[in-house]
Design goal:
four-stranded antiparallel β-sheet
Protein backbone atom coordinates (compact mmCIF):
# COMPACT_ATOMS: atom_id res chain seq x y z
CA UNK A 1 0.00 0.00 0.00
CA UNK A 2 1.36 3.41 -0.95
CA UNK A 3 0.87 6.07 1.71
CA UNK A 4 0.16 9.59 0.43
CA UNK A 5 2.52 12.38 1.50
CA UNK A 6 1.15 13.99 4.64
CA UNK A 7 -0.97 10.94 5.39
CA UNK A 8 -1.31 9.53 8.90
CA UNK A 9 1.65 7.67 10.38
CA UNK A 10 1.41 3.95 9.83
CA UNK A 11 1.34 3.35 13.59
CA UNK A 12 -1.02 6.07 14.83
CA UNK A 13 -4.58 5.76 16.02
CA UNK A 14 -7.39 7.96 14.80
CA UNK A 15 -9.32 10.35 17.04
CA UNK A 16 -12.85 11.52 16.34
CA UNK A 17 -13.20 15.28 16.90
CA UNK A 18 -16.32 17.00 18.30
CA UNK A 19 -17.40 18.04 14.78
CA UNK A 20 -17.10 14.44 13.50
CA UNK A 21 -13.77 14.86 11.70
CA UNK A 22 -10.98 12.30 12.06
CA UNK A 23 -7.57 13.41 13.36
CA UNK A 24 -4.25 11.55 13.23
CA UNK A 25 -0.53 12.36 13.37
CA UNK A 26 1.34 12.68 10.05
CA UNK A 27 4.85 11.46 9.36
CA UNK A 28 5.96 15.11 9.64
CA UNK A 29 4.67 15.27 13.24
CA UNK A 30 1.57 17.37 12.57
CA UNK A 31 -2.08 16.61 13.24
CA UNK A 32 -4.14 16.17 10.08
CA UNK A 33 -7.95 16.29 10.08
CA UNK A 34 -9.93 14.39 7.47
CA UNK A 35 -13.63 14.57 6.60
CA UNK A 36 -15.55 11.51 7.84
CA UNK A 37 -17.78 11.35 4.76
CA UNK A 38 -15.12 11.02 2.08
CA UNK A 39 -11.69 11.21 3.75
CA UNK A 40 -10.91 14.56 2.14
CA UNK A 41 -8.42 16.94 3.75
CA UNK A 42 -9.87 19.51 6.19
CA UNK A 43 -6.84 21.06 7.93
CA UNK A 44 -3.40 20.35 9.31
CA UNK A 45 -1.96 21.70 12.58
CA UNK A 46 0.98 23.30 10.75
CA UNK A 47 -1.55 25.67 9.14
CA UNK A 48 -2.90 26.62 12.57
CA UNK A 49 0.58 27.05 14.05
CA UNK A 50 1.82 28.89 10.99
CA UNK A 51 4.91 26.66 10.99
CA UNK A 52 5.32 23.94 8.35
CA UNK A 53 8.01 22.14 10.34
CA UNK A 54 7.71 22.91 14.03
CA UNK A 55 9.77 21.53 16.88
CA UNK A 56 9.10 19.39 18.68
CA UNK A 57 6.90 17.34 16.37
CA UNK A 58 3.78 15.72 17.75
CA UNK A 59 4.03 11.97 18.28
CA UNK A 60 1.18 10.87 20.53
CA UNK A 61 -2.29 10.15 19.14
CA UNK A 62 -4.50 13.23 19.60
CA UNK A 63 -7.15 13.06 22.30
CA UNK A 64 -10.36 15.08 21.85
CA UNK A 65 -12.54 16.18 24.75
CA UNK A 66 -16.24 16.96 24.75
CA UNK A 67 -15.54 20.62 25.60
CA UNK A 68 -14.07 21.25 22.14
CA UNK A 69 -10.38 20.79 22.96
CA UNK A 70 -7.82 18.42 21.51
CA UNK A 71 -4.55 17.46 23.18
CA UNK A 72 -1.45 16.00 21.59
CA UNK A 73 2.07 15.46 22.93
CA UNK A 74 5.63 14.93 21.78
CA UNK A 75 8.05 12.27 23.00
CA UNK A 76 10.08 15.19 24.40
CA UNK A 77 7.25 15.95 26.86
CA UNK A 78 5.65 18.97 25.19
CA UNK A 79 1.87 19.17 25.30
CA UNK A 80 -0.14 20.87 22.56
CA UNK A 81 -3.70 22.04 23.24
CA UNK A 82 -6.04 23.02 20.43
CA UNK A 83 -9.32 24.78 21.22
CA UNK A 84 -11.95 24.45 18.52
CA UNK A 85 -14.36 27.25 17.72
CA UNK A 86 -17.66 26.84 15.97
CA UNK A 87 -17.16 26.75 12.19
CA UNK A 88 -18.13 29.83 10.20
CA UNK A 89 -19.56 27.71 7.44
CA UNK A 90 -16.19 26.80 5.88
CA UNK A 91 -14.95 24.00 8.12
CA UNK A 92 -13.50 23.60 11.59
CA UNK A 93 -11.36 26.32 13.13
CA UNK A 94 -8.82 25.79 15.88
CA UNK A 95 -6.52 27.81 18.05
CA UNK A 96 -3.31 26.37 19.48
CA UNK A 97 -1.57 26.63 22.80
CA UNK A 98 1.56 24.82 23.91
CA UNK A 99 2.52 24.07 27.47
Amino acid sequence: MVQPAGGPRDHTSVTILPDGGFAAITNAGNVVCLDPADGSFRWESSQILGLPDHEPPMHITPVASVDGRMYCASYEGDLYQFTFRRPRGDGANAEEGRG
